[in-house]
Amino acid sequence: MKVEVLGTGCKKCVATADHISEVAHRLNRDAEVTKVTDPAVMMDYGVMSTPAVAIDGELVHSGSVPDEQTITGWFDE
Amino acid sequence: MLAIFTVIADWLAYGLLGLSPESRLGSAVHFFIEDTTKIFALLVVMIYVIALARASLNLERVRAYLQGRHRVFGYLSGSMFGAITPFCSCSSIPLFLGFTSAGIPLGITMAFLLTSPVINEVAVVMLWGLLGWKFTVAYVIVGMAVGITGGLLLDAMRAHRWLQDFAAKAYAQASAGGGAPGDGEPAPPQRLTFAERHTFALGELREIIGRIWKWILIGVGLGAGLHGFLPENWFAEHLGSGQWWSVPAAVFAGLPLYSNATGVIPVLESLIGKGLPVGTTLAFCMSTVAASLPEFTLLKQVMQWRLLATVFVILLINLSIIGWVFNALTPWLGVG
Protein backbone atom coordinates (compact mmCIF):
# COMPACT_ATOMS: atom_id res chain seq x y z
CA MET A 1 0.00 0.00 0.00
CA LYS A 2 0.99 3.59 -0.53
CA VAL A 3 1.43 5.73 2.58
CA GLU A 4 1.86 9.48 2.29
CA VAL A 5 2.94 11.55 5.27
CA LEU A 6 1.90 15.16 4.73
CA GLY A 7 3.73 17.97 6.48
CA THR A 8 5.94 20.96 5.94
CA GLY A 9 8.99 19.10 7.15
CA CYS A 10 8.92 19.56 10.90
CA LYS A 11 10.30 17.10 13.40
CA LYS A 12 6.92 15.51 14.05
CA CYS A 13 6.43 14.66 10.38
CA VAL A 14 9.75 12.85 10.23
CA ALA A 15 8.84 11.00 13.43
CA THR A 16 5.50 9.98 11.92
CA ALA A 17 7.08 8.61 8.74
CA ASP A 18 9.74 6.70 10.68
CA HIS A 19 7.17 5.28 13.07
CA ILE A 20 4.97 4.00 10.24
CA SER A 21 7.88 2.39 8.38
CA GLU A 22 8.96 0.73 11.60
CA VAL A 23 5.52 -0.73 12.32
CA ALA A 24 5.13 -1.89 8.69
CA HIS A 25 8.49 -3.60 8.86
CA ARG A 26 7.66 -5.31 12.13
CA LEU A 27 4.30 -6.56 10.85
CA ASN A 28 5.93 -7.63 7.61
CA ARG A 29 3.65 -5.44 5.53
CA ASP A 30 4.57 -4.00 2.20
CA ALA A 31 4.26 -0.24 2.60
CA GLU A 32 5.78 2.48 0.50
CA VAL A 33 6.14 5.49 2.84
CA THR A 34 6.74 8.89 1.25
CA LYS A 35 6.93 12.36 2.78
CA VAL A 36 4.90 14.99 0.98
CA THR A 37 5.76 18.66 1.54
CA ASP A 38 3.90 20.22 -1.37
CA PRO A 39 1.28 22.60 0.05
CA ALA A 40 -0.97 22.13 -3.00
CA VAL A 41 -1.27 18.41 -2.23
CA MET A 42 -2.15 19.16 1.40
CA MET A 43 -4.85 21.52 0.20
CA ASP A 44 -6.31 18.86 -2.10
CA TYR A 45 -6.59 16.49 0.84
CA GLY A 46 -8.16 19.24 2.92
CA VAL A 47 -5.52 18.86 5.63
CA MET A 48 -5.38 21.68 8.16
CA SER A 49 -3.04 20.39 10.79
CA THR A 50 0.07 18.36 10.28
CA PRO A 51 1.47 15.76 10.41
CA ALA A 52 -1.27 14.05 8.42
CA VAL A 53 -1.36 10.59 6.88
CA ALA A 54 -3.04 9.42 3.69
CA ILE A 55 -3.22 5.77 2.68
CA ASP A 56 -3.79 4.92 -0.98
CA GLY A 57 -5.04 8.43 -1.61
CA GLU A 58 -7.38 8.61 1.36
CA LEU A 59 -6.81 10.80 4.40
CA VAL A 60 -6.82 8.70 7.58
CA HIS A 61 -5.21 10.93 10.20
CA SER A 62 -4.19 14.51 10.90
CA GLY A 63 -2.87 16.78 13.61
CA SER A 64 -0.55 14.58 15.61
CA VAL A 65 2.02 11.81 15.55
CA PRO A 66 -0.21 8.71 15.38
CA ASP A 67 0.27 6.19 18.18
CA GLU A 68 1.25 2.57 17.75
CA GLN A 69 -2.31 1.27 18.04
CA THR A 70 -3.63 3.62 15.35
CA ILE A 71 -0.91 2.65 12.91
CA THR A 72 -1.38 -1.06 13.51
CA GLY A 73 -5.10 -0.50 12.84
CA TRP A 74 -4.36 0.81 9.35
CA PHE A 75 -2.36 -2.28 8.47
CA ASP A 76 -4.99 -4.67 9.81
CA GLU A 77 -7.71 -3.49 7.48
CA MET B 1 0.20 33.71 46.40
CA LEU B 2 3.18 34.22 44.10
CA ALA B 3 5.22 35.62 46.99
CA ILE B 4 6.10 32.06 47.97
CA PHE B 5 8.55 31.93 45.06
CA THR B 6 10.36 34.99 46.39
CA VAL B 7 10.64 33.21 49.76
CA ILE B 8 12.02 30.08 48.09
CA ALA B 9 14.57 32.15 46.17
CA ASP B 10 15.54 34.10 49.33
CA TRP B 11 16.10 30.87 51.17
CA LEU B 12 18.10 29.17 48.39
CA ALA B 13 20.20 32.10 47.17
CA TYR B 14 20.87 34.02 50.36
CA GLY B 15 20.42 31.24 52.92
CA LEU B 16 21.66 27.98 51.46
CA LEU B 17 24.20 29.38 48.99
CA GLY B 18 25.14 32.24 51.32
CA LEU B 19 25.16 34.89 48.60
CA SER B 20 24.72 38.54 49.48
CA PRO B 21 21.58 40.28 48.18
CA GLU B 22 23.77 43.30 47.46
CA SER B 23 26.18 41.43 45.19
CA ARG B 24 25.73 41.12 41.44
CA LEU B 25 25.96 37.36 41.48
CA GLY B 26 23.53 37.11 44.39
CA SER B 27 21.01 39.27 42.64
CA ALA B 28 21.33 37.29 39.38
CA VAL B 29 21.02 33.93 41.12
CA HIS B 30 18.00 35.12 43.08
CA PHE B 31 16.31 36.29 39.88
CA PHE B 32 17.05 32.95 38.21
CA ILE B 33 15.68 30.81 41.04
CA GLU B 34 12.59 32.93 41.61
CA ASP B 35 11.64 33.07 37.93
CA THR B 36 12.31 29.45 37.02
CA THR B 37 10.40 28.02 39.99
CA LYS B 38 7.51 30.43 39.47
CA ILE B 39 7.29 29.89 35.71
CA PHE B 40 7.44 26.11 35.87
CA ALA B 41 4.89 25.87 38.66
CA LEU B 42 2.46 28.22 36.91
CA LEU B 43 2.90 26.58 33.53
CA VAL B 44 2.35 23.03 34.73
CA VAL B 45 -0.91 23.98 36.44
CA MET B 46 -2.23 26.30 33.74
CA ILE B 47 -1.30 24.23 30.67
CA TYR B 48 -3.10 21.26 32.20
CA VAL B 49 -6.22 23.24 33.12
CA ILE B 50 -6.40 24.99 29.74
CA ALA B 51 -5.86 21.75 27.84
CA LEU B 52 -8.75 20.14 29.77
CA ALA B 53 -11.01 22.89 28.50
CA ARG B 54 -9.61 22.82 25.00
CA ALA B 55 -9.68 19.08 24.40
CA SER B 56 -12.72 19.19 22.15
CA LEU B 57 -11.63 22.16 20.02
CA ASN B 58 -10.66 21.22 16.50
CA LEU B 59 -9.70 23.26 13.48
CA GLU B 60 -12.42 21.90 11.24
CA ARG B 61 -15.01 23.29 13.62
CA VAL B 62 -13.22 26.62 13.86
CA ARG B 63 -13.21 26.80 10.10
CA ALA B 64 -16.88 25.92 9.82
CA TYR B 65 -17.61 28.65 12.34
CA LEU B 66 -15.60 31.29 10.48
CA GLN B 67 -17.05 30.41 7.10
CA GLY B 68 -19.64 32.89 5.94
CA ARG B 69 -19.32 35.18 8.96
CA HIS B 70 -20.05 38.82 8.56
CA ARG B 71 -16.76 40.58 7.88
CA VAL B 72 -16.35 42.75 10.93
CA PHE B 73 -17.34 39.95 13.26
CA GLY B 74 -15.11 37.63 11.24
CA TYR B 75 -11.94 39.58 12.02
CA LEU B 76 -12.73 39.61 15.71
CA SER B 77 -13.53 35.90 15.88
CA GLY B 78 -10.59 35.02 13.59
CA SER B 79 -8.28 36.76 16.00
CA MET B 80 -9.98 35.20 19.04
CA PHE B 81 -9.64 31.69 17.66
CA GLY B 82 -6.03 32.48 16.79
CA ALA B 83 -5.50 33.35 20.44
CA ILE B 84 -7.00 30.16 21.87
CA THR B 85 -5.65 27.74 19.27
CA PRO B 86 -2.15 26.49 20.00
CA PHE B 87 0.34 27.75 17.44
CA CYS B 88 2.87 25.68 15.60
CA SER B 89 4.76 27.31 12.75
CA CYS B 90 4.85 24.03 10.85
CA SER B 91 1.04 23.99 10.77
CA SER B 92 0.63 27.54 9.54
CA ILE B 93 0.75 26.64 5.83
CA PRO B 94 -1.85 23.84 5.83
CA LEU B 95 -4.02 25.98 8.08
CA PHE B 96 -3.71 28.96 5.78
CA LEU B 97 -4.66 26.82 2.78
CA GLY B 98 -7.47 25.08 4.65
CA PHE B 99 -9.04 28.44 5.45
CA THR B 100 -8.38 29.97 2.04
CA SER B 101 -9.76 27.00 0.12
CA ALA B 102 -12.92 27.20 2.25
CA GLY B 103 -13.49 30.73 0.96
CA ILE B 104 -12.65 32.46 4.23
CA PRO B 105 -11.38 35.95 3.30
CA LEU B 106 -7.61 36.43 3.45
CA GLY B 107 -7.97 39.15 6.08
CA ILE B 108 -9.79 36.85 8.50
CA THR B 109 -7.24 34.08 7.95
CA MET B 110 -4.42 36.55 8.59
CA ALA B 111 -6.18 37.89 11.70
CA PHE B 112 -5.98 34.30 12.94
CA LEU B 113 -2.37 33.73 11.86
CA LEU B 114 -1.01 37.03 13.17
CA THR B 115 -2.64 36.62 16.58
CA SER B 116 -1.84 32.96 17.07
CA PRO B 117 1.92 33.13 17.80
CA VAL B 118 1.58 36.28 19.93
CA ILE B 119 -1.14 35.10 22.28
CA ASN B 120 -0.93 31.62 23.73
CA GLU B 121 -1.32 30.12 27.16
CA VAL B 122 2.40 30.01 27.80
CA ALA B 123 2.91 33.71 27.02
CA VAL B 124 -0.12 34.75 29.04
CA VAL B 125 0.82 32.68 32.08
CA MET B 126 4.39 33.96 32.05
CA LEU B 127 3.41 37.61 31.65
CA TRP B 128 0.89 37.32 34.44
CA GLY B 129 3.46 35.73 36.74
CA LEU B 130 6.31 38.08 35.92
CA LEU B 131 4.75 41.42 35.01
CA GLY B 132 1.31 41.43 36.59
CA TRP B 133 -2.29 41.15 35.42
CA LYS B 134 -2.66 44.69 34.08
CA PHE B 135 0.24 44.21 31.72
CA THR B 136 -1.15 40.83 30.66
CA VAL B 137 -4.62 42.20 29.90
CA ALA B 138 -3.08 45.03 27.89
CA TYR B 139 -0.88 42.54 26.04
CA VAL B 140 -3.82 40.34 25.06
CA ILE B 141 -5.89 43.31 23.88
CA VAL B 142 -3.14 44.80 21.74
CA GLY B 143 -2.13 41.36 20.48
CA MET B 144 -5.64 40.87 19.13
CA ALA B 145 -5.70 44.42 17.81
CA VAL B 146 -2.58 43.68 15.73
CA GLY B 147 -4.31 40.68 14.16
CA ILE B 148 -7.63 42.43 13.56
CA THR B 149 -6.24 45.61 12.04
CA GLY B 150 -3.73 43.60 10.01
CA GLY B 151 -6.57 41.54 8.56
CA LEU B 152 -8.75 44.58 7.90
CA LEU B 153 -5.95 46.40 6.09
CA LEU B 154 -5.06 43.39 3.92
CA ASP B 155 -8.65 42.99 2.79
CA ALA B 156 -9.00 46.73 2.21
CA MET B 157 -6.03 46.45 -0.15
CA ARG B 158 -7.58 43.38 -1.79
CA ALA B 159 -4.36 41.60 -0.97
CA HIS B 160 -5.70 38.20 -2.04
CA ARG B 161 -4.63 39.25 -5.56
CA TRP B 162 -1.09 38.48 -4.42
CA LEU B 163 -1.59 34.87 -3.36
CA GLN B 164 0.31 32.19 -5.25
CA ASP B 165 -1.69 30.96 -8.23
CA PHE B 166 -2.92 27.64 -6.87
CA ALA B 167 -4.09 29.24 -3.62
CA ALA B 168 -5.78 32.10 -5.46
CA LYS B 169 -7.60 29.62 -7.69
CA ALA B 170 -8.86 27.59 -4.74
CA TYR B 171 -10.04 30.77 -3.03
CA ALA B 172 -11.86 31.97 -6.13
CA GLN B 173 -13.56 28.60 -6.54
CA ALA B 174 -14.69 28.45 -2.93
CA SER B 175 -15.94 32.05 -2.98
CA ALA B 176 -18.00 31.19 -6.04
CA GLY B 177 -19.78 28.59 -3.93
CA GLY B 178 -17.69 25.45 -4.36
CA GLY B 179 -16.94 24.83 -0.70
CA ALA B 180 -13.74 23.32 0.62
CA PRO B 181 -12.18 20.49 -1.35
CA GLY B 182 -11.71 17.16 0.32
CA ASP B 183 -14.29 17.45 3.05
CA GLY B 184 -18.00 17.31 3.52
CA GLU B 185 -20.00 18.35 6.54
CA PRO B 186 -17.95 19.48 9.53
CA ALA B 187 -17.60 16.82 12.17
CA PRO B 188 -20.21 17.05 14.91
CA PRO B 189 -18.95 18.34 18.27
CA GLN B 190 -17.16 15.60 20.14
CA ARG B 191 -18.40 14.63 23.55
CA LEU B 192 -15.43 13.71 25.64
CA THR B 193 -15.40 11.97 28.97
CA PHE B 194 -13.27 13.42 31.75
CA ALA B 195 -10.82 10.54 31.37
CA GLU B 196 -10.32 11.41 27.70
CA ARG B 197 -9.82 15.07 28.55
CA HIS B 198 -7.33 14.11 31.23
CA THR B 199 -5.32 11.97 28.79
CA PHE B 200 -5.30 14.79 26.25
CA ALA B 201 -4.27 17.38 28.84
CA LEU B 202 -1.43 15.21 30.15
CA GLY B 203 -0.20 14.69 26.59
CA GLU B 204 -0.30 18.44 25.94
CA LEU B 205 1.50 19.16 29.18
CA ARG B 206 4.27 16.71 28.39
CA GLU B 207 4.58 17.96 24.82
CA ILE B 208 4.66 21.68 25.65
CA ILE B 209 6.97 21.48 28.65
CA GLY B 210 9.24 19.11 26.71
CA ARG B 211 9.47 21.68 23.94
CA ILE B 212 9.93 24.84 25.97
CA TRP B 213 11.84 23.97 29.14
CA LYS B 214 15.20 24.83 27.64
CA TRP B 215 13.86 28.12 26.29
CA ILE B 216 12.72 29.05 29.77
CA LEU B 217 16.16 28.29 31.20
CA ILE B 218 17.89 30.27 28.42
CA GLY B 219 15.47 33.18 28.70
CA VAL B 220 15.60 33.34 32.46
CA GLY B 221 19.37 32.88 32.37
CA LEU B 222 19.76 35.87 30.04
CA GLY B 223 17.30 37.86 32.09
CA ALA B 224 19.13 36.99 35.31
CA GLY B 225 22.48 38.00 33.81
CA LEU B 226 21.11 41.35 32.68
CA HIS B 227 19.37 41.80 36.01
CA GLY B 228 22.51 41.21 38.04
CA PHE B 229 25.21 42.74 35.87
CA LEU B 230 23.69 45.59 33.88
CA PRO B 231 23.68 48.80 35.92
CA GLU B 232 20.32 50.32 36.89
CA ASN B 233 18.94 52.76 34.34
CA TRP B 234 21.56 51.77 31.79
CA PHE B 235 19.10 52.25 28.96
CA ALA B 236 17.80 55.60 30.11
CA GLU B 237 21.37 56.85 30.25
CA HIS B 238 22.54 55.40 26.94
CA LEU B 239 19.51 55.50 24.73
CA GLY B 240 17.54 58.28 26.28
CA SER B 241 13.89 57.53 26.74
CA GLY B 242 11.86 59.96 24.74
CA GLN B 243 12.81 59.47 21.10
CA TRP B 244 9.83 58.41 19.01
CA TRP B 245 11.98 56.56 16.47
CA SER B 246 13.40 54.14 19.02
CA VAL B 247 10.12 52.19 18.85
CA PRO B 248 10.03 51.46 15.09
CA ALA B 249 13.78 50.83 15.21
CA ALA B 250 13.23 48.17 17.88
CA VAL B 251 10.45 46.56 15.85
CA PHE B 252 12.54 46.56 12.69
CA ALA B 253 15.41 44.93 14.52
CA GLY B 254 13.13 42.28 15.99
CA LEU B 255 11.11 41.20 12.94
CA PRO B 256 13.70 38.98 11.23
CA LEU B 257 14.87 37.53 14.55
CA TYR B 258 13.32 34.37 15.77
CA SER B 259 12.30 33.72 19.29
CA ASN B 260 9.31 32.35 21.07
CA ALA B 261 7.42 34.06 23.84
CA THR B 262 8.89 31.70 26.40
CA GLY B 263 12.46 32.81 25.92
CA VAL B 264 11.69 36.46 25.46
CA ILE B 265 9.45 37.29 28.41
CA PRO B 266 12.03 36.89 31.22
CA VAL B 267 14.41 39.09 29.22
CA LEU B 268 11.63 41.63 28.83
CA GLU B 269 11.05 41.67 32.57
CA SER B 270 14.72 42.27 33.18
CA LEU B 271 15.10 45.01 30.53
CA ILE B 272 12.13 46.92 31.87
CA GLY B 273 13.77 46.80 35.28
CA LYS B 274 16.83 48.47 33.74
CA GLY B 275 14.91 51.45 32.49
CA LEU B 276 14.13 50.48 28.90
CA PRO B 277 10.70 52.02 28.19
CA VAL B 278 7.92 49.45 28.50
CA GLY B 279 6.39 50.10 25.07
CA THR B 280 9.73 49.91 23.28
CA THR B 281 10.59 46.63 25.00
CA LEU B 282 7.19 45.14 24.29
CA ALA B 283 7.28 46.19 20.64
CA PHE B 284 10.67 44.53 20.23
CA CYS B 285 9.60 41.32 21.94
CA MET B 286 6.32 41.06 20.05
CA SER B 287 8.10 41.56 16.77
CA THR B 288 10.53 38.71 17.48
CA VAL B 289 7.58 36.48 18.40
CA ALA B 290 5.05 37.51 15.75
CA ALA B 291 7.14 36.83 12.69
CA SER B 292 10.52 35.49 11.74
CA LEU B 293 12.61 34.64 8.72
CA PRO B 294 11.73 30.93 8.83
CA GLU B 295 8.05 31.85 9.08
CA PHE B 296 8.26 34.20 6.10
CA THR B 297 10.09 31.54 4.10
CA LEU B 298 7.24 29.12 4.75
CA LEU B 299 4.60 31.69 3.84
CA LYS B 300 6.41 32.34 0.54
CA GLN B 301 5.01 28.99 -0.61
CA VAL B 302 1.51 30.43 -0.63
CA MET B 303 2.11 34.18 -1.03
CA GLN B 304 3.79 36.30 -3.67
CA TRP B 305 6.58 38.65 -2.62
CA ARG B 306 4.27 41.60 -2.76
CA LEU B 307 1.89 40.12 -0.20
CA LEU B 308 4.75 39.09 2.09
CA ALA B 309 6.21 42.59 1.95
CA THR B 310 2.80 44.06 2.70
CA VAL B 311 2.38 41.83 5.76
CA PHE B 312 5.86 42.85 6.92
CA VAL B 313 5.09 46.56 6.59
CA ILE B 314 1.71 46.22 8.32
CA LEU B 315 3.37 44.43 11.23
CA LEU B 316 6.04 47.12 11.42
CA ILE B 317 3.45 49.87 11.62
CA ASN B 318 1.09 48.05 13.99
CA LEU B 319 3.79 47.07 16.44
CA SER B 320 5.22 50.60 16.42
CA ILE B 321 1.81 51.95 17.35
CA ILE B 322 1.64 49.43 20.18
CA GLY B 323 5.03 50.57 21.40
CA TRP B 324 3.99 54.20 21.46
CA VAL B 325 0.67 53.43 23.16
CA PHE B 326 2.36 51.37 25.87
CA ASN B 327 5.01 54.01 26.45
CA ALA B 328 2.18 56.48 26.99
CA LEU B 329 0.30 54.06 29.28
CA THR B 330 3.31 53.23 31.45
CA PRO B 331 2.09 54.98 34.62
CA TRP B 332 -1.13 52.93 34.58
CA LEU B 333 0.49 49.54 34.02
CA GLY B 334 2.36 49.40 37.29
CA VAL B 335 5.64 48.18 35.81
CA GLY B 336 8.87 49.92 34.89
How does this structure look, described?
The complex is a heterodimer of chains A (77) and B (336). Chain A is an alpha+beta fold and 77 residues long. Chain A contains three helices and four strands; from the N terminus they run βαβαββα. Chain A has one domain: Glutaredoxin, CATH 3.40.30.10. Chain A has a four-stranded mixed beta sheet with strand order 2-1-3-4, with helices on both faces. In chain A, β1, α1 and β2 form a beta-alpha-beta unit. In chain A, α1 crosses α3. The radius of gyration of chain B is 21 Å and the shape is globular. In chain B, 43% of the residues are buried. Classes of the chains: A alpha+beta (77), B mainly alpha (336). The interface between A and B is medium-sized, with 21 and 25 residues.
Radius of gyration of chain B, CA atoms, in whole angstroms: 21 Å
CATH topology of chain A: Glutaredoxin
- Can you list the strand order of the major beta sheet of chain A? 2-1-3-4
Major sheet description of chain B: none
Number of helices of chain B: 16
**Most strands sheet of chain A:** 4 strands, mixed
What labels describe this entry?
heterodimer; A: 77 residues; alpha+beta; Glutaredoxin; 4-stranded mixed beta sheet; 4 strands; globular; B: 336 residues; mainly alpha; 16 helices
Provide a brief overview of the structure.
The complex is a heterodimer of chains A (77) and B (336). Chain A has 77 residues and is an alpha+beta fold.
